[in-house]
Sequence to fold (171 residues):
Amino acid sequence: MAKPLDIVIYPSPILEKVSEEVKFPLDNSTTTLITDMWATLAEKGIGLAAPQVGVNKQICIIHLIADARPKGKKDLNFVMINPKIVFESQVENLMVEGCLSFRRFFYEIWRPANISVEFFNEKGKKRTLKAKEWLARVIQHEIGHLQGNLFIKMGGKKIKKDDLKGREVID
Ligand SMILES: [Zn+2]
Fold:
């Protein structure tokens, strides 16, 4: 049975380490980790990286609910293993980011608006994905976790939870 894991909260040193590459085929502990990560993310957020549950492996999961996507699209759930951003647009956009490992504040951050990312799925198949808007933002935030590059260190403007005033947040 999948079990929700405890979320590692900043300033745990685990959050600032570079995660290790995952080898294929996945071993049992990695498969279990991914299942438990899904149980952990359920209803809580739109992305989770393995270091946030205390494991420095290059794995992150993305869950975009249909409401946050263009009309007619379904929920989008996928696992990214050993992801690498292979293209970043010169054009950047400004969004407010939150994080399950930082519950009391948010940051307004500029990042590339469009990206391409290469990653492996759970079967070890290589995938390339072009992403924009929300999806591009979530992917960049999660890959940051795998490199120990936390969103709080990107020179953005800090915003307290009470000061969000209904702004859209990537959390
Ligand atoms: Zn985060």
Notes: Strands lie at 47-49, 59-64, 76-88, 92-99, 102-112, 114-120, 126-132, 157-160, 169-170. Residues 159 and 165 are 10 Å apart (CA to CA).
